[in-house]
Structures are given as C-alpha cells and as structure tokens.
UniProtKB/TrEMBL annotation:
InterPro entries: Aminotrans_3 (IPR005814), Aminotrans_3_PPA_site (IPR049704), PyrdxlP-dep_Trfase (IPR015424), PyrdxlP-dep_Trfase_major (IPR015421), PyrdxlP-dep_Trfase_small (IPR015422). It comes from the Bacteria. Coiled coil: none annotated. Keywords: Aminotransferase, Pyridoxal phosphate, Pyruvate, Transferase. Belongs to the class-III pyridoxal-phosphate-dependent aminotransferase family. PROSITE patterns: AA_TRANSFER_CLASS_3 (PS00600). The keyword Transferase applies. Its cofactor is pyridoxal 5'-phosphate. SUPFAM superfamilies: PLP-dependent transferases. This is Taurine--pyruvate aminotransferase. One of its GO terms (molecular function) is transaminase activity. The keyword Transferase applies.
Length: 463
C-alpha cells in the first residue's frame, strides 16, 4: 500500500486495523469475527464511527482527555504554525512555546515554580520518582528512598509507575516490581467498613492517620515521598473525605516527606479548578499532569515542582553528578506546549471552569435522582465533571455488582449513542463504578442526554 486513502473506502481501514493495530486495554479475540470500532471524526462533544453512527462522548476521548471538545480549529492552527516554524529541538535548549506555556502554567499554580516537559503521565510520574531517589542520595545518605502510594490509585503503566499502583488487576502478571514502593490504605468513605477500626465519625482524619502508621512502621528516615491522586480516578472516582488532606499535609511536614500530587486526570480544569489539589488547600512539592494539558491535540505532560526542590539540583555545581541527569525525547516537541497555550486560553476565555462546576452540579443532581429510582446505585461521588456512580447488589451490604453487569450498562449506553466508562480489571471484585467525564464544554442538554441513557440502560440491564 502507498498510504493514499479514499474516505469512502473505510472497509480497507477496518481490515488494516484488524490485521495490524494492537489496541490498548482490549482483548482482540472478538475481532476475529467482529469489526473493530474506528472513530472517524469528532466535533464538539460528539464523535462518529466508521458506520456513520453519532455518539455523545461522556468520557472525553475514552480516557478523560479532550477537555475542550473536538474540532478546535484554533488549537490545530497553533500547532501547525509552530511546527512549520520549529517542530522539535531537545529540551536541553528552550523553545518559544515551551517558555510561554511554562509561565502561563506557573501563574495558575501559586507556590510552584519549575516545569519539566515530558510526553506522558506515566513518564511524568517517573521523573518525580527519580528526583525523590536522587534527593535521597544527595541529602540523606541514600536513605529516604521509599515512595508511598495509595490503595486504588493509579500512576501509570511503566514498571516503576506500576510499582506505585494500587490496582492489583492492572499489576497482575507484570511483576516483579521496583523495590521501596509502599502502599497505604484507601480513603474511600463508602467502603470504610473494609478498613479495620474505621470510625463512623472523622473518617477523613482517621484515614490520613493510617498513612502515619505506615510511615512509623517503615521508619520515617526511610520514606522520601507520598504520591496521591487528588481524586482517585480508575480506582472508582473517589474523593477524599473532609479532614483528610489537611492531615496528610501535616504528616508530610512532620516527617520531612515530599508530597507528590498526580493530576494526570484531574489537572487543567476537570474538577472545576485548574488543579484538583486546589480544591483542598494542599501545597504539594511535585505536581504531575498530562491528559487535559492540551486536550489530546498534541502529546504533552509536565512534572511541576517548587523552587526549593529545583534548588536541590544546583546547590553544588562542582559535583558533576549533582544535576537531574534525565531526558525525555519528545519533551522537546514544540507541538505540545503550542497546543497547551491555546487550550488554556480557551478554558479561560470561555469560562469553562465555572461551566465545569455548574454542569457537574447538574449531573450530580441527575445521578442522585437516578439513585432514588434505581436501587442498584449505591453511591454517587466525584468533583466537577469527574463523577462516578457505584453499582451494588444490595445497598445494605454494599456488595458490588459483577463487573460484567457494569460493562453491560456501558454497552447499552453505547447502543443508544452515548459513550460512558466504567472501572474495569483494576480492583479485584470491585470494578463496579460507572465513570463520567464529559468535556468542560458540556451543556445542560448534553448532561441530560447522558443521564437519560444511563436511566434506560439500568432499567434494561437490572430490570
């Protein structure tokens, strides 16, 4: 084949896909008899597949990414113009869009100072992990190498990121993992009955105190960092209860532990503020981000840190090993920051943070109304336009529905032309949460169409 393509010849595309493309997170056996789905076009909140069927996308590109919607000509033009001027140069040198976006980003993150560019959320988290380890050797005689992570949280698909992964089904069959990654308990109030000794009141403070217990068990002089999602994403869309974050911050300061907030999903508007941690008054040492930074129009991820952390890597210029000896090849691609600049402008000019809050409140109200109608919904939770509805067999026991039942709801919504998500093959026995993350441009009609589809699907799947 010479690469030419007639748009009317989609059958060729389907066959090429079936024969040669290895898709993400998909078992390919069914493609022996069924066609793979090809998404051909997107505009606003909607996408069209190879059969011409229109779908309202309630998960922003399938993985919480396209925050400002599809078909943004101004972003495409910004990327084109930049690539024609300079497509790439290694980030050992600067670039115009890299410098401008870094300044714009830091303006939205009081207390933060430096931006390290990379090309994926997994890699951004790896950069922070490497910095923690290098600081341990530089400042603590090789101690404080341990990195704590939370049950149900997810930080990426590389081996080190999976070593910090709190989703056992995602990790299964990929070990052994890197040493000195230590798990702490989840903070999910709806399932606090699973945690020994959890109180009825002040659960948030208690859940944070469990982190301190792990620190004391491991030895405070061995723990360098704590890595947390502001809202747990693929582990069930879990917002920490009141009192949790303040206590976490106190614990980190008490034991000289760096706080790493993973904003790969929540960052750049998803919760109604620029970053999820800003909802809770947290002051992190590292913030990582990816998906919404450029809304999927170009690959970009960032590891952002404070000036205090940055200074640790230039305090002794006579030491040839003192600086951060790391490179990310595609961190030097200029398309990412060029797209990110325009993406941020759109969010500001169109007041999408407020729209995210308003439409998120509407969606919570709709889901709570469905909860009154469908007993299978045990809990509705989340922040902004990042929401989950947990499905249970019985509200009293909170027994999760089988993962296949949650996926049947997803499939039914798909048949109605609405794409929603659900936790899958992540937390053993608890892949039972429907996930919603529509673009920040969502209208009231979009929100109502999404929840109407869920209403019909629940009625058909559960009767």
């Amino acid at each position: 084949m010479d690469g030419t393509f007639n748009e009317n010849d989609l059958s060729r595309v389907v066959e090429a896909d079936r024969a040669h493309v290895w898709h993400h997170l998909i078992q390919h056996k069914p493609f022996e008899t069924n066609d793979p789905r090809i998404i051909v076009e997107g505009k606003g909140m909607r996408v069209w597949d190879q059969k011409g069927k229109e779908h309202l996308d309630a998960v922003s590109g399938g993985v919480w990414t396209v925050n400002v919607g599809y078909g943004r000509e101004s972003i495409c033009k910004a990327v084109y113009d930049q690539l024609m001027k300079l497509c790439y140069f290694a980030n050992s040198a600067g670039s115009i869009p890299g410098s401008i976006f870094a300044e714009m980003l830091i303006e939205k993150m009081p207390g933060m100072s430096r931006v390290y560019y990379t090309n994926s959320g997994s890699e951004a988290n790896e950069k922070a992990f490497k910095m923690v380890r290098q600081i341990a050797h530089k400042r603590y005689g090789g101690k404080k190498t341990k990195i704590m992570y939370r049950d149900r949280d997810y930080h990426g698909s590389t081996l080190a990121a999976m070593s910090a992964g709190g989703q056992d089904e995602r990790n299964a069959q990929y070990g052994p993992f890197a040493p000195d990654f230590v798990r702490v308990p989840h903070c999910m109030e709806y399932r606090k009955h699973e945690l020994d000794g959890a109180p009825e009141e002040n659960f948030g403070e208690w859940a944070a105190d469990q982190i301190e217990q792990v620190i004391l068990r491991e030895g405070p002089d061995t723990v360098g960092a704590l890595c947390l999602e502001p809202v747990t994403a693929g582990g069930g869309v879990i917002e920490a209860p009141e009192g949790y974050w303040q206590r976490v911050q106190e614990i980190c300061k008490k034991y000289d532990i760096l706080l790493h907030i993973d904003e790969v999903v929540c960052g750049v508007g998803r919760t109604g503020t620029w970053f999820g941690y800003q909802q809770y008054g947290v002051k992190p040492d590292f913030v990582t981000m990816a998906k919404g930074v450029a809304s999927g129009y170009a690959a970009i991820a960032c590891m952002v840190t404070t000036e205090e952390v940055f200074d640790m890597f230039k305090d002794d210029a006579s030491d040839p090993l003192n600086y951060f000896r790391d490179i990310s090849t595609f961190g030097g691609c200029t398309a990412g920051p060029a797209a990110a600049i325009e993406n941020m402008r759109i969010i500001q000019d169109e007041n999408l943070l407020q729209n995210c809050t308003d439409m998120g409140n509407r969606m919570v109200g709709n889901l709570q109304a469905l909860m009154e109608k469908h007993k299978v919904i045990g809990d509705v939770r989340g922040k902004g336009l990042f929401l989950g509805a947990e499905l249970v067999v019985d509200r009293a026991t909170k027994e999760p529905v089988d993962e296949k039942m949650a996926q049947a709801v997803v499939a039914d919504c798909m048949s109605q032309g609405v794409i929603i998500g659900a936790t899958n093959r992540s937390v053993p026995g608890k892949n039972n949460t429907l996930c919603f993350s529509p673009a920040l441009i969502a209208t009231a009609d979009d929100i109502d169409q999404i929840t109407d589809a869920v209403d019909g699907a629940l009625g058909r799947v559960f009767g």
